[in-house]
Amino acid sequence: MAFEMVEHTGDVAVRLRARDLAGLIEAGVYALRALLFEGVPPPEAREQRAETRVTGVDREDLLVQALAEALHLMQEPGLYPREVRVELEGELRAHLGLCGVRADGRELRQVEEIKAVTYHAVEIHEKGGELETLIVFDV
Amino acid sequence: MKPIALSHIRPERVDEFRWRLPRTGPMRVDGLVYADDALFAAIRNDPALVQVCNVATLPGIVGPSMAMPDIHWGYGFPIGGVAAFDAEEGVVSPGGVGFDISCGVRLLRTALPVEQVRDGRHLNTLVDMLYREIPSGVGATVRGRLNRRELDKVMTSGARWALGRGLGRPEDLEHLEERGCMPGADPSGVSERALERGARQLGTLGSGNHFLELQKVERIYDEKAAAVLGLVAGHVTVSIHTGSRGFGYQICEDHIRKMVKAATVYGIELPDRQLCCAPLSSPEGRSYLGAMACGANFALANRQVITQRVRDCFREVFGKGEDWHRIGVVYDVCHNLAKLETHEVGGVKRRVCVHRKGATRALAPGHPDLPPLYRAIGQPVLIPGDMGRYSYVLCGEPGAGSEAFSSSCHGAGRVLSRKKAKVLARGRDLPGELAARGVTVRSRGRATLAEEMPEAYKDVADVVSSVEGAGLARRVARLVPFAVIKG
Q: Quick check: A120 and B76 CB within 8 A?
């Protein structure tokens, strides 16, 4: 499970790679985390949890919707996920759980505002035995 | 439907400022890019051209799929994209508006020669106060929260809501697009999540490329138009660039989810799912337009609240009232919107929905939708450049109406990705570099400053030159920044 920032003029593009669809969603959440936050979680911070369920019309739609919901859980509350759990029911439903800490603005800071997760260029395909896709975030 | 391959695009130079992308494959119409030779060469192999061609596949498109000279790679529509769709047979696409519904620019004039503001003592105090009083940066919010009743009024009244609360003057409305209120707003298509996000964001700049800038009118190109607009060489102006904040982003996201399903229901094949759309006449299409208008009104109210904060800060710092600074609105124009308009196409008047994504409306002289004072000169078109160089005020010309559905560019257009800009900025003292150019900057984040550095953008003078050369708009004045507030 991996993510890699790639060149995009207007916004931020990321390439996600993972063994399966759940792994792609997880990679996407970690990519969002890398963009949103800077610093390290303060050791004494209280752990918080957030979860959501999403459905999609196909796996690309599920990926985008899951990441959009993850963004909503992370961005405005400032939740930095230390652990991400993705459970799929087929390829059209996902249960996403985040466990992490709130950014305190000192040791852990929110440094980016992501407007949205877009569908642009999302096409999940197999490469080298893994699933891969590009995804663009509007900043 | 697969996107058009870049290798299948065979551009043809039409003239010094126009390039045609001939119909190929599933394209219903040609593409048309406004750019001189140098600007076009820079984007010849850019995915933005594929995006122009993808838009040309959408049903009911009228005229070419266009892009302005500040074209660059976006998502779905290119940034700088303009496309019109027949009001009966065509579609509406939230991706053709963008997540920041009605992001736009407001220009304020003042009666103040720059020397009165730019002296060291007053300037730093003024900039610090603006930075404090107008929340900017990641997650910017205000202290109070709008309740549902107030939000309903904002959604349906736009900038007029702000005037009702003493935040502005009646004459401000005369110089706003749609006189400060976009018609057709329907809150029934706005989700609770959007309302929740908007409740504490009215009066905030946000982050990214949003800004508040103090400028000097450095050069006048059109004396008559400048006099009508109240622009005086050497005087201070203020530009505000922001939009509908999280409220608008959520509206777009909510309706894109519905449109993804709707496109399938209506049998619309898409080369890029971000172009998801529905017929204008469908329930989904009407719901989106109604909600989009709510977003537009939030943005208009947002810029009106900020305008009043600017007036308050000037009064506080200089100890003198409005008779002294006479801060007035030159114009307020947005660059992310879909509007139902009447245009002449092939000699026949047609009702079309013009999508402008990173493009600005530019009405020609004589247009009835212009404020009476501006009817002789054309609509002001506000084109911000980067924070180190300059911005422009243009006025719409007849060429924009006849071919480009009364549209023009919206800014400089990026040339560097944010990733590259941050690499280029490493080890550099950007605030120091800008100060050496005479620009005082306040920014919440070093990362944002790096992403927005002047080298990340085209020279807006080149973009404006192409717009003027193509007959879409003409230069009226050039403004240079001396203070910038960024999120």
A: yes
- The whole-angstrom distance between B364's CA and the closest CA on chain A is 30
Q: Given CA atoms B69, A115, B27, B359 in this order, what sign does their dihedral have?
A: negative
Question: Which residues from chain B sit within 8 angstroms of residue A7, using beta carbons?
Answer: 417, 419-420
Secondary structure in 3-state letters for B169-223:
CHHHHCCEHHHHCCCCCCHHHCCHHHHHHHCCCCCCCECCCCEEEEEEEEEECCH
Q: Which of B301, B274, B276, B273 is nearest to B102 (CA)?
A: B301
Per the structure block, which two tokens stand in for B127? 């900039």
Active-site position among B235, B255, B355, B410 = B410
R_g of chain A, CA atoms, integer Å: 14
Q: Note whether ipTM > 0.90 here.
A: yes
Query: For chain A, what is the domain count?
Result: 1
Q: Residue B347 burial by CB count (10 A; 0-12/13-18/19+): exposed, middle or buried?
A: exposed
Question: Biggest alpha carbon distance in chain A?
Answer: 42
- Report the C-alpha gap between B309 and B294 in whole angstroms: 23
Could you tell me the residue range of the domain that residue A75 belongs to?
2-138
Please compute the mean of the pLDDT values over residues B402-414 and round it to a whole number: 93
Helices (H), B56-179: 114-118, 120-133, 148-157, 159-164, 170-173
Chain A contact present for B145, CB below 8 A? no
Residue A125 contacts B, CB cutoff 8 Å: no
Binary contact (B272, A10; C-beta < 8 A): no
Query: To which H or E segment does residue A63 belong?
Result: helix A59-74
Question: Per the CB < 8 Å rule, is A113 touching B208?
Answer: yes
Residue of chain A minimizing CA distance to B249 = A115
| Greatest mean pLDDT range, A39-43, A88-92, B155-159, B413-417 | B155-159
- List domains and CATH numbers for chain B: 6-486 (3.90.1860.10)
Separation in Å, CA of B197 to nearest CA in chain A: 9
Least CB–CB distance from B138: residue in A60, A72, A112:
A112
> Is B193 in CB contact (< 8 Å) with chain A?
yes
Annotated catalytic residue B72: no
pTM: 0.96
The 10s digit of each residue's pLDDT in B187-238 is 999 999 999 999 999 999 998 899 999 999 999 999 999 999 999 999 999 9
